[in-house]
Amino acid sequence: MSQQQAIQLVQSYYAAFNAGDMQTFADLLTDDVIHDINQGARETGKAAFHAFMQKMNGAYRERLSDISILANADGSRASAEFVVHGQYLRTDEGLPPARGQKYRLSAGAFFDIRDGRIARITNYYNLPDWIAQVSAG
Asked: How confident is the model at residue 97 (pLDDT cuts 50, 70, 90)?
């Protein structure tokens, strides 16, 4: 895979996310995808990723903007920086109560790419900033 193909893969991943197209979103992943949850556990496999996304989509409505993607020369790794525009819809366990609060966060992700699909996703955002935003809102 070339550097440009890796960038296009990650662009497709985020386009599917923004469109709420979870089928396309999942189709871009390897069956054994590794998902490093922000400040949380590591999960493996499409089934675990699907369950995570169902939970997230029930508790949050998010749209990403200002997406900037980089990839290495052989297309095996990529990274993205973006802004999350969200609304907290349903209380997530261990987090402040949801009341429809809106938030805006800078975030990033790192990817391993194998056989034209995403094999690892590591997400990062500033959880204390998010908590402060939803606690104030």
From this structure: very high
> Region 101-107: what's the mean pLDDT?
97
Four-way CATH pick for 3-136: 1.20.1250.20, 3.10.450.50, 3.30.460.80, 3.30.70.1350? 3.10.450.50
C-beta separation of 58 from 90 below 8 A: yes
Q: How far apart are the first and last CA of the chain?
A: 44
Where in the chain are the domains? 3-136
In sequence order, the 6+-apart residues with CB closer than 8 A to the CB of 50 are 22, 26
- The helix/strand/coil state of 98 is coil
| Nearest Cα to Cα of residue 38 among 52, 17, 54 | 52
Question: Residue 66: helix, strand or coil by DSSP?
Answer: strand
Which range, of 12-16, 37-41, 81-85, averages the lowest pLDDT? 37-41
The pTM is what? 0.93
